[in-house]
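# step 3/5: fold
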Amino acid sequence: MKRLHLFISVAVMTILSSCSSVQLLQFEQLKPAEISFPNDLKNVAIVNNMPKEELGKQSYLRHTAKEFEADGATFVQEVANVLAEGNYFNKVVVCDSLLYRYDENDAPQYHELKPAQVRQLLGDLDADMIVSVDRLYVRTSIGQLWDNYYGIPFDAVNASYAALVHLYVPTRDKAFMQVTDVDTLQFELDLNLSDDVIAKETSGYAGMKIANKLIPYWHGVQRIYYDGGMAEFRDAGVALRENDLEEAGRLWTNLYEKKKGKNKMRAAFNLALYCEMTDQLDKAMEWLDKAKALVGESNVNDRNTITYYQAALQRRQQEMNKLNIQMNRFKGQE
């Protein structure tokens, strides 16, 4: 996970270093959930159906590879916390009881909830849907992280996990949907690291990612904009960084109307960003078309920058179509 973060940072710095007038902007956008639910599904219960495993609290031994189930209680609680904080459902409740029961022929797979069990849980918890947290399998191995300050690698533990969750509703005898997630976290290998720490950290992270598949969530995005060469561009950049978006848009509009060539193109590009940040995606695409029409054939960097941004906006338009459907449940509410 940290390696990916470093790769993205290096890529961004490469772009910025190629043109001193380009700046990086980070802001949050509401992303749609992977799954869309009917508007009448309002109350959700989260239950722990994971095998319980005793995890060591002693320091993680170097060159040790392990496989274990993570912390079900932490997983369940994080799913519930994210769903509750999202205010997407009317009510989110947690069942504290551990539902998983071992038997003599226990297989290394999840135990499906029985129809009678689902009906009882739905009734007792006053829920329209059960989110059954079933497995969080973790496999650890030794890896490396790069220290940017000293410019050297150091030992770390890779924790690869596979999460499994099932969704139950009263109209189905079996789970109507399976939700999965896989990822790898990296932990610095030190004396404070243990299986228990890895399990809890991984469970919290996996719980957040699973919950984000169920409801719309805020996600940080990165965009670039032109900020140099003229005082008006610099003033607009200051306004943007001070969250005065309207002033930045006004200055960019003046630049577009008064300037020619490269500066006119860059003002149009920045106005596309203004429109995206004010949820005017169609107008943002129009501004990018204008910017592209002003780019000289030899200006490869600016042309590529516009092309990348067009692709990002097209993805955002697709997201917005899905997001609008998911947010229909709030129409008519104050």
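# step 4/5: annotate
The chain has nine helices and eight strands.
# step 5/5: archive (pending)
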